[in-house]
Amino acid sequence: MSTAAIVMMVVAMTVIWGGLALAMVSLVRHGAVEDRTENVRRDL
Amino acid sequence: MSTTSEGATAQPEQERRRGGFSSRRVFILAAIGSAVGLGNIWRFPYVAYENGGGAFVLPYLVALLTAGIPFLLLDYAIGHRHRGSAPLSFARLRRGAEGLGWWQVGICFLIAIYYAAVIAWALRYTFFSLDQAWGADPEGFFFGEFLQAGDVQVTADVVPGVLVPLVLVWLAVLVIMALGVQRGIGATSLVFIPVLVLAFAALVVQALLLPGAGAGLDALFTPDWSALTSASVWAAAFGQIFFSLSVGFGIMITYASYVGRREDMVGSGLVVGFANSGFELLAGIGVFAALGFMAQANGVAVDEVASDGIGLAFVAFPAIISEAPAGALLGVLFFGCLVIAGITSLVSVIEVVISAVRDKFDTSRLTATLAVGVPAAVLSLVLFSTTSGIYVLDVVDHFVNQYGILVVALVSMLAVSWALRALTGLGDHLNVHGRPRVGTGWRLLTSVVAPAALAVVLVLALRDDLATAYEDYPSWLLLVFGWALVVALPLVGFLVARLPWRAGTHLDGPPPGSDPATPLGATTTGHDEGGTR
Fold first, then answer.
1. Could you give the CA distance from residue B528 to residue B530 in angstroms, rounded to a whole number?
2. Which domain range does residue B39 map to?
3. Cβ neighbours of residue B496 under 8 Å, at least 6 residues apart?
4. CB A30 to CB B15 under 8 A?
5. In a domain, B526, yes or no
């Protein structure tokens, strides 16, 4: 692989998979507590 | 007016009847399952390769952040705030907008009937992979022996090899749908999405170990910076993000309506958006590593073997499987992933229709599943298990995507932003429990940037289709299964919207409890003007 291709592959992986990791961490830290008494298993 | 304390106490009961996801994790997996479909595997790699390679990363990320995720959040806000299927949510935004929801429902119905056929092909090819049944001529085998495709015409000549797997796909989907939101869709996603990721990761590892894989990745990621000056490259990026995320045609509205009221929809949307793109990137690496192997094995350049869509899956990949060491394993992983990704997307598409029927006509889950699923399955079998199925599928897929989804998404977005002026209220709703907060930037992206980008994609597609007949198909075929369908969908949608809602349906504004301003048990809200009809 050329250097340019390797660099762009690493950039794409870092930004997209890194963005996913950040989004998951952010959601875990800030996600609201679900109101389980109201919503749990509403399926009939 | 229905928003009385009596109506408010009825609301949780109505939500219990609709069903819902038991947790945020289940919702996120279901939404990822919907977004990650066949297009992630067989469309993204080639679009990226054709539009600047490594340089495509830039417009792709811009499109994801400026249009894809903002639009995804808009769908989430509509469904989560209004607690209904697409038609009910739009009716609660404003009664006259209900037809937009039914237009989206119609599109989903059409997508379901042909999408199932592609899954059936992939299911059959999973088994073909074991002994490489296609022999030395995968293309001839696919179009000839397997599909038995003849001249371009509509026939009733059934192909048993397609009919049987198609029946199995529909049976599986109907069982999942009948089980309900949590026990059907949710449980399927809980199992299928981790399996999909693990199986595809195994495929990528196997592909990367093939000789020539580096050449394939080199072709995919070598940047062509001059491509960034081309409008068509940017349009391709926005188009890819848009089609890939399943936004704008009711799926995310429906799924969001099944999520607990206090959930962080912004954070969930970011996870779903990046997870979808993350899977696309993984698919790009796996597919081009395999294509690099094929190119080296045949002594040709990668551009001579690169392809997308049906050609990639059912012609190129079988050739790769035949030549690769442990090809049977590669084939089972590849086609198995297509089946899994397809099933989780198909159930989300069908759920849009079932949810709308249940909301409108107050039917049980099983009744709605049969009322929607059986006609869809019959149409699917009649149209796509015959020798002409491939042609009809190709035309319907092209027109429904380009002029069905694109147009309804654009019209819906403009209507919500400019005609209904609902963005401020929807943004406030997202901000109640969501982080990061959305504000003026989100409203600007949703009302101006994303619609403008979609309009450009639409105009470029229209220009191409008016210049030359799509794939040189005969005019009658394009007219009947293309233009006529996309014109009929909004007409039918607004006609269905004239049917009365079941008694007691809360309309005109979000139901009690959706916003802090209208908590459960509250009395009349300012914009509630009549409640039921």
1. 6
2. 13-500
3. B87, B99, B102, B105
4. no
5. no
Cα distance between residue B498 and residue B265, in whole Å? 32
Q: How many residues does chain A have?
A: 44
Please state, in angstroms and rounded to a whole number, the distance separating the CA atoms of residues B202 and B188.
Answer: 21
CA dist B531 and B519 (Å) reads 17
Complex confidence, ipTM:
0.89
Q: How many CB atoms lie under 10 A from the CB of residue B307? A: 18
Size of interface A-B (CB pairs under 8 A): 124
Residue B518 falls inside a structural domain: no
Element (H, E) at B419: none
Does residue B29 lie within any of the structural domains? yes
Q: Token pair for residue B385?
A: 């298990």
Residue whose entry in the numeric block shows the structure tokens 């090809």: B327
Q: Is residue B521 part of a domain?
A: no
Average confidence score pLDDT of chain B? 91
pLDDT of B152 > 50? The answer is yes
How many structural domains comprise chain B? 1
A 10 A CB-CB count for B201 gives 13
Around Cβ B425, how many Cβ atoms within 10 Å? 17
Cα B39 to Cα B37: distance, rounded to the nearest angstrom: 5
Asked if A44 lies within 8 A of B17 by C-beta distance, the reply is yes
Q: Any chain B CB within 8 A of the CB of A3?
A: no
The residues near B319 (Cβ < 8 Å, ≥ 6 apart) are B138, B294
Which of A:11-30 have CB within 8 Å of B?
11-13, 15-17, 19-20, 23-24, 26-27, 30
B522: number of CA atoms within 13 Å, CB side?
A: 15
Q: Nearest chain B Cα to A6, which residue?
A: B221
Distance (Å) from the alpha carbon of A37 to chain B's nearest alpha carbon = 10
CATH number of the domain at B20, please.
Answer: 1.20.1740.10
Average pLDDT, stretch B385-411? 92
Enter the tokens of residue A14.
Answer: 């870092």
pLDDT value at position A34?
Answer: 46
